[in-house]
Structures are given as structure tokens and as C-alpha cells.
């Protein structure tokens, strides 16, 4: 084979490593797998714990209860009957009638209270008290991922500033693979809890490094908005596929099957990262990033982070509580528990891709404001559903509105850093991921307890009103002021192409030249 033919794959690989589109593909796949694992457990865990703990405990007690003699029936096993033929009393076995004859009179036996509760509708699970307690346990298990991610995110942001995005991205893949395999073979609540917490560590590395990598590669604000919309489409697709895929595979194949499929897909993602990202290569940022605590003091970043937190908290509260509410009120089979989230996932996928482009034209602040209002209204409508078909409308509106908020807020985070701080994105996307995690930590952990205390409908009212109340704050992001001196310093040190933002004062093009001050004075 000629040497030129040997070089073709290496040329393709080198071109791929220089391609922004392939970087976007890597981030898309990583977010897809992370969120498939996030939601695939939603329909599996409640029914798995019910089957293994409640039904398993009752089935082990049931044989012991059948061994003793049966309790007294309404009719005694032996009846006495007086014979007028020879004036004697004869004892007979198992009289078909529930009466006794004494001296020719018919006497009804004393009535016994029923020993069993009225039968439940077909398909409804027993154990109301167990299901009420399970709300809290399942909520804590789901929240463990976000709580761990909340703690790890700031450290990952600092790590990406020092060694770049490639190595943390690959570390995230390794941890995610281990978590998926552990989910497949865990049979107790404790092991499931550990696997979920381990997923939080891997998700922190993947999401912070992935989003930061996109922001550093797509420096133009319009292109960055489109790229973030596509990447969030991977997140949406993972949410879309996860719950229905998990419920169907669990119902018809088994509990381990969906996790083994995800583990195989994770291996393919790892191979893609090895080829494209070169995770052994350390690429620290040339410019020191703004510290996390400085970014947290920026009110505009806090408003954007709050919008991400509260809009996602609604669906986070639904994840542990909606399947159990459906089991108790609708008597839903296993496959419906995951399919209930399908409308929200489809509409989220449409919303993120549609408003990745439209949000820049209509104003991202307006897009997020409308989105949060629709999130609140949709949550208020969820408890009105009487069957799974009644959930289609509220869940569709919820997913579409969250897609509006996410596709608007994620580019705004990078835009605020460009406008007001140093254009290094690891820390700001660590804050964005912390906002996500706070929603997915507070939501499930408090949602289960609130449902047990005051009921599922009131939980939806509380989080719906919170979203509607918070929505007007997005108006603050309409025209955030720029810290021009920081942008000028950054542009002199590291010239790059930037898009001119509309601010209180018109900015000059960068990089600055020696004659720019004279030109500016002449223009004035």
C-alpha cells in the first residue's frame, strides 16, 4: 500500500480534531448519555423497590400465614339439628345454609366483621403507607446525584481552567460508565443510591467541561447560541428517550437491560473522545478566568442561574412523585409510568432546537420570561389529569417552556462573561450546572416530603406559583451593562473576533490600534 494511502486516516483524524462541528458532536453525545441515564431510572426505581421490598416481604410472610387453621367462618364447621322423629339432637358437618335449627326455630349466627378490606381496582398496587414513605426515599435517591454534582462542580470549573477541557471530559466518561454498570447489577436501595451519587460526579465533569469547551470554540454570540441549542438538543433527546426506554425495557426484558445498553453506548462515546479530543493533552487556558465567587456576586448571572434552577425544579419534582401518584390514583401499569414523560421530552427537544435560533431574534430575556410563565401554568394543570391522556397537554407545555428557558439562559451565561468578565467559561458553566443541580436536588428531596404532608396537587401549586412569580425578573437581562475596561484589556492581550453587543454606550471594534483613540475623537 502506498504511503499516501496510509496517511489518509491520519489526515482525516487531524482534520476532525480541528473541526468545531465534531467537538459539538462529542458534547452532544456526552449530554445525551448523561441524561438518558438520568431519566431511565425514573420509571424503574419506584416499581423495582415496590416489587423487591413490599411484595417480597409480603410473599415471605404469606406462606407462614396459610399454615395455621383458617379463622372461624360465618357458618361454624359443625351444625346441630333437632330431630322430631326420635327427639334427639344430631350434629352434622358443614351445613350449606348459614343457619342453626334449635327446637324447630331458625336462628342466624352472629355476624362477623369482614376480615379483608374491599378489593382495589384492577392493577392498583396495595400498601398505601409503603407508597407514601417511598415518595421520600425515591426523592432522596434521585436528589443524591444533584447534591453530589452541586459539591463537585466548582472544583471541576477550577480544574478546567488549569488543565483544559479534554481530560475532565474523559474523566466524566469513565465515571459515567462505572455508574451505569453499577446500576445494572444493584439489587438494594443502598447500592442504587451509591450508583446515583457516582453518576453525579461523572455528570459534573462531562457537563461543565463540555459546555465550557463549546463556549471557547464558538466565540461569536450568534454561533454560540446555535451550538448551545444543538447541544441542549442532546440533553433533550436523552430526556426524551430515557424514561420511555427504561419503562419498556424493564417491563418486557428486565431491570439490567437498559443500563447494559447505555454502558455499551458509553464505550462508543469514550472511543469518540479518544479520537477527537486527545484527553492525554493538557491545554490550560491562556488567560486566568474570573473567580467563581466574583461571578456569584454578579446579579445578572444570579438572575440567569435562578431561572435555570426554578424552571427545572418543576420537572425535578415530577420525576419521583408523578409515577407514584399515577400508581395510586390511575392504577397505571409499569410501561405508562415512563411514557407519561414522553410529551414533555418531545416538546423539550422541539423547544431547545427552535428557540436556539429564535431566542436571539426575539430577545433571550423575553424568551425566558415567557418560558417560566408557561412552566408555572403547566404545573398547575398537572393534578387535573384523570388518566395518562390528561397528562399530555400539561407535560407538553412544561417541556416546551423549559426548552425555551434553557436555550435562552445557557448562551446568556457565556454572553455575560464576555460582556462583564474575562472570557474563560469553565467557572460560569460550573455555576450554570450548579443551578441545574440545585433544581434537581431541592426538587426531589423536598417534593416527596411535601407530597406526604399535604399531597401531590399542593406540591404542583407551590412550584407553579414560584415559577410565575420569578418570571418578571428575567426582564433584568434585557440590556445588562458592560464593564468596558475589562473587555478592552482582554482584547489587547488576546485578540479575537467578537460580535458587537448592544449596550448603554457604543463599543469600538477590537483589537484596538494606536490610532483608534484619534479616530474615535474625530468621529465624535
TrEMBL record:
* Residue span of region Disordered: 102-124
Membrane topology reported for the UniProt record: Multi-pass membrane protein
The record's SUPFAM superfamilies line, in alphabetical order, gives: MFS general substrate transporter
Residues of the signal peptide = none
For this UniProt entry, which segments traverse the membrane? 21-45, 171-195, 201-218, 230-253, 259-279, 300-318, 338-358, 365-385, 397-417, 424-443, 455-477
CDD domains, A to Z: MFS_SLC18A1_2_VAT1_2
Please give the superkingdom of this protein's source.
Answer: Eukaryota
A Pfam family that the UniProt record links to this protein: MFS_1
Alphabetical list of PROSITE patterns matching this protein = MFS
* Pro residues compositional bias, start-end: 110-122
Q: Which GO terms describe its molecular function?
A: serotonin:sodium:chloride symporter activity; xenobiotic transmembrane transporter activity
Task: List, in alphabetical order, the GO biological process terms annotated in this UniProt record.
Answer: aminergic neurotransmitter loading into synaptic vesicle
- Ranges for domain Major facilitator superfamily (MFS) profile come to 72-482
Q: Which UniProt keywords are listed?
A: Cytoplasmic vesicle, Glycoprotein, Membrane, Neurotransmitter transport, Synapse, Transmembrane, Transmembrane helix, Transport
State any GO CC term: synaptic vesicle membrane
Q: Where in the cell is it found?
A: Cytoplasmic vesicle, Secretory vesicle, Synaptic vesicle membrane
* Predominant location: membrane
Catalytic reactions on record: serotonin(in) + 2 H(+)(out) = serotonin(out) + 2 H(+)(in); dopamine(in) + 2 H(+)(out) = dopamine(out) + 2 H(+)(in)
InterPro entries recorded for this chain?
MFS, MFS_dom, MFS_trans_sf, MFS_Vesicular_Transporter, Tet-R_TetA/multi-R_MdtG-like
Family designation: Belongs to the major facilitator superfamily. Vesicular transporter family.
Write the protein's name: VMAT1 protein
Organism per entry: Rissa tridactyla
Q: Please name the taxonomic classification of the source.
A: Eukaryota, Metazoa, Chordata, Craniata, Vertebrata
Amino acid at each position: 500500500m502506498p504511503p499516501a494511502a496510509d496517511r489518509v486516516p491520519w489526515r482525516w483524524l487531524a482534520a476532525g480534531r480541528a473541526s468545531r462541528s465534531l467537538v459539538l458532536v462529542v458534547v452532544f453525545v456526552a449530554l445525551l448519555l448523561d441524561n438518558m441515564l438520568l431519566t431511565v431510572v425514573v420509571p424503574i426505581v419506584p416499581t423495582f423497590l415496590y416489587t423487591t421490598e413490599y411484595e417480597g416481604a409480603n410473599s415471605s410472610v404469606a406462606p407462614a400465614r396459610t399454615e395455621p387453621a383458617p379463622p372461624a367462618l360465618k357458618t361454624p364447621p359443625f351444625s346441630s339439628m333437632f330431630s322430631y322423629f326420635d327427639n334427639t339432637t344430631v350434629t352434622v358437618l358443614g351445613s350449606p345454609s348459614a343457619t342453626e335449627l334449635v327446637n324447630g326455630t331458625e336462628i342466624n349466627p352472629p355476624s362477623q366483621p369482614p376480615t379483608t378490606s374491599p378489593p382495589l381496582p384492577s392493577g392498583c398496587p396495595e400498601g398505601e403507607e409503603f407508597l407514601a414513605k417511598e415518595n421520600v426515599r425515591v426523592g432522596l435517591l434521585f436528589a443524591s446525584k444533584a447534591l453530589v454534582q452541586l459539591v463537585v462542580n466548582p472544583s471541576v470549573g477550577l480544574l478546567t481552567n488549569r488543565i483544559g477541557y479534554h481530560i475532565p471530559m474523559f474523566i466524566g466518561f469513565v465515571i459515567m460508565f462505572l455508574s451505569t454498570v453499577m446500576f445494572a447489577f444493584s439489587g438494594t436501595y443502598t447500592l442504587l443510591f451509591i450508583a446515583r451519587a457516582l453518576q453525579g460526579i461523572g455528570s459534573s465533569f462531562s457537563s461543565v467541561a463540555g459546555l465550557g469547551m463549546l463556549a471557547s470554540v464558538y466565540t461569536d454570540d450568534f454561533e454560540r447560541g446555535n451550538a448551545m441549542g444543538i447541544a441542549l438538543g442532546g440533553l433533550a433527546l436523552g430526556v426524551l428517550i430515557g424514561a420511555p426506554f427504561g419503562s419498556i425495557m424493564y417491563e418486557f426484558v428486565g431491570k439490567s437491560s437498559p443500563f447494559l445498553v447505555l454502558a455499551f453506548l458509553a464505550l462508543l462515546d469514550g472511543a469518540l473522545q479518544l479520537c477527537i479530543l486527545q484527553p492525554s493533552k493538557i491545554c490550560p487556558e491562556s488567560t486566568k478566568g474570573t473567580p467563581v465567587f466574583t461571578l456569584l456576586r454578579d446579579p445578572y448571572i444570579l438572575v440567569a442561574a435562578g431561572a435555570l434552577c426554578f424552571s427545572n425544579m418543576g420537572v425535578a419534582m415530577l420525576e419521583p412523585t408523578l409515577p407514584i401518584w399515577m400508581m395510586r390514583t390511575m392504577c397505571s401499569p409499569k410501561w405508562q409510568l415512563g411514557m407519561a414523560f414522553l410529551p414533555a421530552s418531545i416538546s423539550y427537544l422541539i423547544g431547545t432546537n427552535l428557540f436556539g435560533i429564535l431566542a436571539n431574534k426575539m430577545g433571550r430575556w423575553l424568551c425566558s420570561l415567557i418560558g417560566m410563565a408557561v412552566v408555572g401554568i403547566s404545573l398547575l394543570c398537572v393534578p387535573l389529569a384523570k388518566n395518562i391522556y390528561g397528562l399530555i397537554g400539561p407535560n407538553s407545555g412544561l417541556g416546551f417552556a423549559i426548552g425555551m428557558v434553557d436555550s435562552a439562559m445557557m448562551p446568556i451565561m457565556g454572553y455575560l462573561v464576555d460582556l462583564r468578565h474575562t472570557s474563560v467559561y469553565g467557572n460560569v458553566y460550573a455555576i450554570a450546572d450548579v443551578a441545574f443541580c440545585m433544581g434537581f436536588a431541592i426538587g426531589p428531596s423536598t417534593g416527596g416530603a411535601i407530597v406526604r404532608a399535604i399531597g401531590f396537587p399542593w406540591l404542583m401549586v407551590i412550584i407553579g406559583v414560584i415559577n410565575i412569580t420569578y418570571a418578571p425578573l428575567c426582564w433584568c437581562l434585557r440590556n445588562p451593562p458592560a464593564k468596558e475596561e475589562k473587555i478592552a484589556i482582554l482584547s489587547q492581550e488576546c485578540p479575537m473576533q467578537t460580535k458587537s453587543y448592544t449596550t448603554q454606550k457604543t463599543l469600538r471594534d477590537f483589537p484596538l490600534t494606536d490610532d483608534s483613540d484619534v479616530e474615535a475623537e474625530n468621529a465624535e
